Each structure stands twice: as structure tokens, then as C-alpha cells.
């Protein structure tokens, strides 16, 4: 069903009836001699795929399976999506009880708006509350679905000119006031186009582009593809205020995700360890719209990291939404 009367239609179906139980044959059991009992299996909650081709009302099925040793009673299931997406009914109550291995389906209807352009990740969450079963009292599942495609790499997200030649400083605007790093002074401390940069166990690279062209990302929630496994994700960058911090979200190929917060000091004057960052390089002075200046003052580049689940393959990263954070590269470290 599509078009204008979506909310009214949802309200019309707000009352949910009792659900029929779907029995599932319990697996055979065998007790090994002289072994400790296996841990109690946990209640399983699964969410069916959500049709995101809006504007429409999509039907979503949430399945709850009792894996515990006792009967599951007083089962209630709730479901929700992104902020502002109407769901009916808000809660489904299941009559009767579930034996071990039995399952029940709760059906919801969710209003899906017209798709937005660009890349989007949406999360849907279902929670079951109950008595008996595994004894935990509740179980939750989250399903993430994405539309669009992440940017191929960080270079595809470059949106700012951070480095200019001292003979032509006009293109630079790293800080919003027309200032930029000096290419000559960065080269003097090893930061030449394409140069390797080792920091926090990661092998990064200084952007391999000419001076006066876009070579860094002002963070605004961009999704960037990244592949690999390791213990942490290392960012190479700097801040343009003292508030250059935020949270990045890492998505793995199995659909799960993790988050981590990091930050950089202002490119000058802030303590070099502000936000827990590590100093990578310090250049002398900066380029201003009128030419090179501020000699004797350090303008710096830093590294910071967030933890990864080393057992999973990284798929893409969603950058923080804070334009004070500027990123030159990111890489996975062991």
C-alpha cells in the first residue's frame, strides 16, 4: 500500500490478535559421561528483511525461539525502526506458552518513507520479554540495512585543501580562514605526497596529490569502504578547533558494527596529547592567503585509534559528524 493515507492505515491495524505458536521439533539430546552440563542456550530473536522501497507500508516478521530448558510464558514482542518511522502495533502479545525449541512469529507494519539519495545505514530493533525459557527475562536483536554504496576509499571523500605551495597559497582553506600547511615545511619533516607514515602500529600514507588540491576529509558522517582485519583502526589527521572529537562506526561483513570515539588537538597551540592523540609530525609556520608566515609556530599532524573486533572482517567505516575533524588517511593495525 502506498501514498498519502499511510498513518491512518497503520492506526486501523493497531490492535494485534493472539498469535499461533509454530512448533519446532526439539533436537535429540545426549549426556556425555563425567562432563559438566553445557551452558543454557539463549532465546533467539530474528528480524526479517525490511523492504525499504518507500513510500510504502512494509510488513516485518519477528521470530522468537525458546532455546531454554523451561516453558516460555507471557511473551511480548516489540519492534522499532529509525526515528520517525511509525510502527503498528507497538507490541504483540503471544497467548499460551512455548515449549523448548518452539517458536512464535510476531508481525508488524512499518511506514517506510521515500528513499533519500546517498548512502544510508538504518537499524531495526526487536525485543522479546517473557517468563521462563532461558530465565533471562528478555532478548533483543538488531538488524541493520543499508541503501546506496559507501565511497570507494578516503580519497574519494576529499573535500578540503589542507596543503599549498609557498609560491601559491591562495587555494588553501584548511581552517575556514584561508590558511593551510606549507608543502615545503611538511616535506622537511617527511610528509611528502605518497610518503609512508607509521603511527600506532598502522602503515598509513600522506595523500598522494599535488599541493593546492583537495587532500583531506572534513568529517561529516561519510561512509567509506575499508577492508581488512585487526585490533584497531588508526586515523591520521588534525583538528581546526579544540573540539575536534567524535564517534566513528565500523561495520563488518557479517552485518554487525562497533563504535569508537577519538579526537585530534587543534593543528596549533593545543596540548599535543589532547583527546588522547599522538603527535606524528610538526611543521614550522603555515601558509596564509597573503603568503607564508607564522614562522616559529608549530602546525601539526596527529594519529588516534579506535578498537576493532579482530575476529571480524571490516566492510566500511562511517566517519564522525564533526567538521572540525580533518582526516588525511586511515588504516587497520594488528
How would you describe this structure to a colleague?
By secondary structure, the protein is mainly beta. 4% of the residues lie in helices and 45% in strands. The chain has two helices and 23 strands. The strands form six sheets. Strands 1, 2, 3, 5 and 8 form a five-stranded antiparallel β-sheet that branches. A hairpin with an 8-residue loop joins strand 2 (44-47) and strand 3. The longest helix is centred in the N-terminal third of the chain and has 7 residues, at 6-12. It is elongated and about 80 Å long. The two termini are 49 Å apart.
Structure characteristics:
2 helices, disordered N terminus, mainly beta, five-stranded antiparallel β-sheet, elongated, 334 residues
Amino acid at each position: 500500500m502506498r501514498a498519502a493515507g499511510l498513518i491512518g492505515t497503520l492506526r486501523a491495524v493497531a490492535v494485534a490478535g493472539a498469535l499461533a505458536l509454530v512448533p519446532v521439533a526439539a533436537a535429540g539430546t545426549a549426556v556425555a559421561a563425567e562432563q559438566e552440563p553445557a551452558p543454557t542456550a539463549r532465546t533467539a530473536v530474528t528480524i526479517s528483511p525490511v523492504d525499504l522501497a518507500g513510500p510504502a507500508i512494509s510488513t516485518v516478521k519477528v521470530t522468537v525461539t525458546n532455546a531454554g530448558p523451561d516453558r516460555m510464558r507471557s511473551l511480548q514482542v516489540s519492534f522499532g525502526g529509525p526515528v520517525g518511522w511509525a510502527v503498528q502495533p507497538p507490541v504483540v502479545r503471544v497467548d499460551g506458552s512455548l515449549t523448548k525449541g518452539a517458536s512464535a512469529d510476531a508481525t508488524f507494519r512499518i511506514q517506510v518513507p521515500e528513499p533519500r539519495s546517498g548512502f544510508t545505514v538504518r537499524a531495526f530493533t526487536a525485543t522479546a520479554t517473557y517468563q521462563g525459557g532461558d530465565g533471562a527475562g528478555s532478548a533483543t536483536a538488531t538488524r541493520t540495512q543499508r541503501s546506496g554504496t559507501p565511497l570507494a576509499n578516503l580519497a574519494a571523500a576529499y573535500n578540503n585543501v589542507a596543503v599549498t605551495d609557498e609560491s601559491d597559497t591562495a587555494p588553501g582553506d584548511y581552517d575556514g580562514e584561508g590558511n593551510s600547511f606549507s608543502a615545503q615545511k611538511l616535506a622537511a619533516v617527511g610528509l611528502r605526497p605518497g610518503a609512508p607514515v607509521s603511527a600506532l602500529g598502522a602503515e598509513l600514507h600522506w595523500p598522494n596529490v599535488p599541493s593546492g588540491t583537495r587532500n583531506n576529509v572534513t568529517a561529516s558522517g561519510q561512509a567509506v569502504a575499508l577492508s581488512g582485519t585487526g585490533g584497531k583502526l588508526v586515523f591520521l589527521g588534525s583538528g581546526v578547533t579544540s573540539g575536534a572529537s567524535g564517534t566513528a562506526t565500523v561495520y563488518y561483513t557479517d552485518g554487525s558494527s562497533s563504535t569508537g570515539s577519538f579526537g585530534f588537538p587543534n593543528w596549533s597551540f593545543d596540548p599535543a596529547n589532547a583527546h588522547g592523540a599522538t603527535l606524528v609530525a610538526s611543521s614550522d609556520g603555515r601558509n596564509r592567503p597573503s603568503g607564508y608566515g607564522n614562522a616559529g609556530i608549530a602546525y601539526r599532524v596527529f594519529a588516534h585509534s579506535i578498537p576493532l573486533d579482530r575476529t571480524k572482517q571490516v566492510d566500511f567505516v562511517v566517519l564522525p559528524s564533526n567538521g572540525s575533524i580533518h582526516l588525511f588517511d586511515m588504516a587497520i593495525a594488528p
